[in-house]
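So, is this right?
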Amino acid sequence: MARLDALGRCSAWEIISRCEARTNRGILTGSMMNSTVSSRYRAILERINTAANSVGRSMEEVKLVVVTKGHPVEAVRQAVTAGASAIGENYLEEAEEKIRALQDQPIEWRMIGHVQSRKASGVCQNFDAVDSVDSLKLAQRLDHFARERKRVLPVLLECNVSGEQTKSGFPAWQKPSWSALAAEFAQVTDLPNLDVRGLMTMPPYFDAPEQARPYFQMLVQLRDFLESQLPQVDWVDLSMGMSGDFEVAIQEGATMVRIGTAIMGERPLL
């Protein structure tokens, strides 16, 4: 798998250029579903650009991860044809079929869902990065299997900044606990076959995106704290923001946004 280095940090602007090149080569078909995915994809890129510019940032600083949970292989292929290079999946079994079917495509596969320890081997085998490491135990399991495969696995540490019991992640909603959290993170960052690249979070769902801003700000503050406590780690990435609130997340410093419904549409009923 290890395609991450080859893909690098494919920015939203680079993806726009890829879209235009593919369109010029006639790769985009005229089917209704494909053009819908394509038009939604490009609309999201424009919104990323607008949100970044609103705070003096460049859209090149933001990686777009297209979330394809619940969508069939053909729908994922259409997203890739539209320009997507980073695909986020939540479940190992569902992802395996898609990865096999699209192995000829230059896709960066990112695990964004909760990973059970017993599935760590399969995740390490199939994914280019894991954005949802939510415990020291899972980190140790992933490190073990990465070592067996003689690879270094890029990961993000998922942090629960809201205190919601339904959310996974390291408990990070109380600032007084951050010193203890940093000590636990130090154990993760010492694992030789994991490359900790930053943090990920999911705020509570709100109808008004602005209400999610304090939670994004909290993750930024945690990142700044960790930079002072663990300066040997490059805390470069903040994965935060989804279809309903990604523009606010970008304004607060997101380097990755995870967009599903706004690009792929509603998941088909089973």
